[in-house]
From TrEMBL:
Entry annotated with the keyword Transmembrane helix: yes
Coiled coil: none
Boundaries of every YdbS-like PH domain copy: 87-164
The UniProt record lists the keyword NADP: no
Ranges that cross the membrane: 34-57, 63-81
InterPro entries assigned to the protein according to its UniProt record, in alphabetical order: YdbS-like_PH
Designated name of the protein: PH domain-containing protein
Length: 175
C-alpha cells in the first residue's frame, strides 16, 4: 500500500525475447525431416481413425463419425504446420555448451554443457533411414536436460557425435 506523497518507482522492463548475442546463425535440421514428421502424423491419425471406426461399427456409438471428422481435421492441420515446426528446430555449438531450440508458440531453449554429457547416441527410424537421416541424443546426469536433435543427415550426425564426444572428454578431464 502506498502512502500519500511517496513516488512510485517504475519497474524495469523485462525483455520479451531471449537475447543471445554470441550465437550466430542456428544450424538447422534437414528439410527432408518434414517428410518423416508428416508420415508419422498421418499414420497416427489413421490409427486413431481406425479406433473410431471400431467404436462406430462394433460398439455402435452414434457420435463416432464426428470423432472421425475431428481426427481428420486435426491431422490435416498438424500436417500443414509440420514444415514451420521443423524449421524452428536448431542447434548451435558454443564455446562451453551446445544450445538447442525448438518450438513455435512455446519455444524451448536447452543448454547442455560439454563436460556434463555422459552419452551421445545416434538413432535411425525406418523412414529417416530411407531418407538418410538420423537423430542425435545427448544424455546428462540430470534427467530433464536430455536433448534430441532430430533430422540430421547421417554424415552430419556422425561427425557431430564425434565432435561432441571429443569436447566432452576434454571438458571432463579438466574437472
Amino acid at each position: 500500500m502506498r502512502r500519500s506523497g511517496e513516488k512510485r518507482v517504475p519497474e524495469p522492463e523485462t525483455p520479451r525475447r531471449l537475447d543471445l548475442p554470441d550465437v550466430p546463425d542456428w544450424k538447422r535440421v534437414s528439410p527432408r525431416y518434414v517428410l518423416v514428421e508428416i508420415v508419422g502424423t498421418v499414420l497416427f491419425g489413421l490409427a486413431l481413425c481406425g479406433g473410431a471406426v471400431v467404436l462406430w461399427l462394433v460398439v455402435g456409438l452414434e457420435w463416432a463419425p464426428y470423432l472421425i471428422g475431428a481426427i481428420v481435421l486435426v491431422t490435416l492441420l498438424t500436417v500443414l504446420f509440420e514444415p514451420r515446426r521443423v524449421r524452428a528446430i536448431g542447434y548451435q555449438l558454443r564455446q562451453d555448451d551446445l544450445l538447442f531450440r525448438r518450438g513455435i508458440m512455446f519455444t524451448r531453449f536447452v543448454s547442455v554443457p560439454y563436460g556434463r554429457m555422459q552419452l551421445v547416441d545416434i538413432t535411425r527410424g525406418p523412414i529417416a533411414r530411407w531418407l538418410g537421416l538420423a537423430d542425435l541424443k545427448f544424455v546428462t546426469a540430470a534427467a530433464s536436460s536430455g536433448v534430441l536433435i532430430p533430422g540430421l543427415a547421417e554424415a552430419d550426425a556422425e561427425s557431430l557425435r564425434d565432435r561432441l564426444v571429443e569436447l566432452a572428454e576434454s571438458r571432463r578431464a579438466g574437472l
